[in-house]
Amino acid sequence: MSRGESEPSRPDFLDLEETQVNEGTKTGIFWAAAVAMLAVAIFVSWPAETDSDTQSLIGNPLFPTFTDPLTASSLRIVNFNDEQGELRRFEVAKDESTGVWSLPSRNGYPADAAEQMQNAANALVALKVLDIQTENAEDHSKLGVVEPKAESLEIGDAGVGQLVSVRGDKNQSLANLIIGIPVPGSETKRYVRIPGQDPVYVVNLDSKVFSSRFEDWIEKDLLQLSSIDISDLEIQNYASALEATGGVAVNRSYDAQLSVDGSNTWELRSLVVFDDQQQPQPRPLVEGERLATAKLNSLKNALDDLKIADVAAKPKGMSENLKADKDLVSDNEAVRSLAARGFFPINSGDIISANGELKVSLNDGVQYSLRFGNVQGLSDEPAGEGEDEPVGGANRYLLVTAQLDDAKFPPPALRSIPKTVEELDEMDALERELERAADLEISGDAPMIEAPADAPDAPATESPEAEPAEPVTPEPSPAEPNAPATPEPAEPAEPATPEDPVDAATPETPADETPASEDPASEDPAGDDACGDVPNEDEPAEPAADEPATPAEPATPVDPVDPAEPAATETPADETPAPADEPDAPAAPAETPAAPPAEPTVEETPEEKQERLEAVQEQLTKENQRMLDARKERMDAARRRVRELNNRFAQWYYVIPESTYRNLRISLEDLIEGPDDATAPGPDAASGAPAFNFPGFQN
Questions:
Q1: Where are the alpha helices (DSSP H) in 56-183?
Q2: How far apart are CA 163 and CA 177, in angstroms?
């Protein structure tokens, strides 16, 4: 084609296609730019939105969905021991069916956790964010909020926090929190973090409610007794050890039985010491010795306040009363478990302790037996699940059982029930005698009347029999010339007066009238005659005062003084009969109470006696039954208490602080105070100690 020739023109449809391609490219470019700008905007704006969400938590609950503390059914606490590089887990949970709290980390030991758990849950329900300390994960270590995970921790790692997890029904997670160090300058503020998140918050939190100490979650009073209820102690002070031959050597020091009353007054009822050959020897207190009451009172208080530091599960096969049955004795693994803790079952079925026993009896008839084992941690056996290292010093194993103290329930003194009318009469007569003796003891004056009067006892004993002859008194007999004075008591015949007393009281006359009436009468009548009637009015005045005193009971205590003084000064014979009449005064009240029961006895017909016999039989039968029922009720109550206690004690070794053990164990030197050479110490060596066959360690 030549230059002059023009190029052929392009088709119009090709121009249209090019135009469409250019526009599509431009549109794509615009879209790409828009996406890029959007990405940049999102990238730039994202941190600002995150900061806004975190800041919005300030002043609000950290766990907004956890609002009811009663929905919490388990609490798990994890701590890290940086020295050993180990995690320690503590857990308390509630049984959904029974509602009983227990410690799964301690083999299901019963927990006293209702109040403690509510306090822990409330602390998380009310937990509000005060501030946000940091969102940088690199700061977790210095704030003490590193999560305790076994796979990511090693010995010596620092900054590990305490993990607290609360769950509800069906294992639903309610709250999880890592508790760090306290905020500097504040006693209540803490750094905390939610596991899996970086922000560290500042909150007000009392971390004491999340204690993982065993003793903070259990019933602290192990024995549940009061020191004022302790009535008796039995101390068996001995030491036992496992021999190389497989036997158990027991070295006994002493056995003591003591009692104590409500005022802390101690009494030694029995003390036996053992010599080097393990022969028992009675050991009474010598002059100058006494019980160490301060030490014994300290023991009582230690029993009242006995606290445990830990528990471990006992081997299966050990019964509630701590008897070693055949299955247990033949189970070498169980026997070794017991021996490692200082308890040695023997073929007789008993269990010997490494460091003696103590029996404590209460007033209600419940008796505790405490057996002291080895120090925790001295055995080669590894600690079982949930057994932490001793806290605050050495601890010691303890076995506890309860049993009934039969000595507190003596059979009651039942009353004899008459079977016949004759036995009823005998019982009535005996009761009258007892009442008469009781009246004499209550009055207290009857024996004092006879003692000062030098007259023989015969008038006092015969006066009750001579009561019908009281009108014929012996007073006129010594004063025959003064017979006109006798009509005052309205006696029958004056001449008969001097004869009747002589005849009626023949045995009394030589005793009373001969020394005290005839001799003074021979001297006094002269004076009486010289003075006429005046002496008769003066001298008989005292007997006259005595005579009405005989029927008048209120004057009885006063009269014995008057006759006693004339007896000492040898007064006229007119006063001599007064002592004979005086015993009648106390004799009358003695017979007065006995008279009423005597009358119906005489007047009762056979039918009435039979009816009364049946009534007495019914009454006494009911009284005897009441006494038997009261004893049975006390024994049943004590048995129920024993069962309750053994249900608590049956499955566990208890671990007590060594300081508590020292208060519960008393040496012979500490038991007795007195001269230095009086306390004979028990044997120190094991020579001569009896050996028991120990089935689990036989060669």
A1: 114-125, 140-143
A2: 6
Residue with tokens 């009269």: 559
d(C-alpha 630, C-alpha 566), whole Å: 59
**And the tokens for 23?**
């526009």
532-570 pLDDT, tens per residue? 444 444 444 444 444 444 444 444 444 444 444 444 444
Question: Could you report the per-residue pLDDT of 382-429, keeping only the tens digit for each?
Answer: 444 444 444 446 899 999 999 999 999 999 999 999 999 899 889 989
Out of 218-227, 425-434, 522-531, pick the least confident: 522-531
Please identify which residue in the block is written with the tokens 């083999």: 107
Q: Is the pTM of this model over 0.70?
A: no
Residue corresponding to tokens 């009363």: 321
Residue at 428: amino acid letter: D
Bridge-based pairing of strands 310-313 and 652-657 is: antiparallel
CA-based Rg of the chain, rounded to a whole angstrom? 50
Burial state string for 543-579 with b = 16 or more CB within 10 A and e = fewer than 16: bbebbebbeeeeebbebbebbbebbeeebbbbbbbbb
Q: What's the pLDDT tens digit per position in 428-475? A: 899 889 888 888 877 765 554 444 444 444 444 443 343 444 444 444
From residue 429, alpha-carbon distances to 8, 164, 422, 438, 595 in Å are 167, 83, 11, 14, 12
* CA 243 – CA 266 distance, rounded (Å): 38
Pairwise CA distance, residues 522 & 529, whole Å: 12
Encoding tokens for residue 586? 């106390």
Task: List Cα–Cα distances, 316 to 323, 327, 338, 652, in angstroms.
Answer: 12, 9, 11, 11
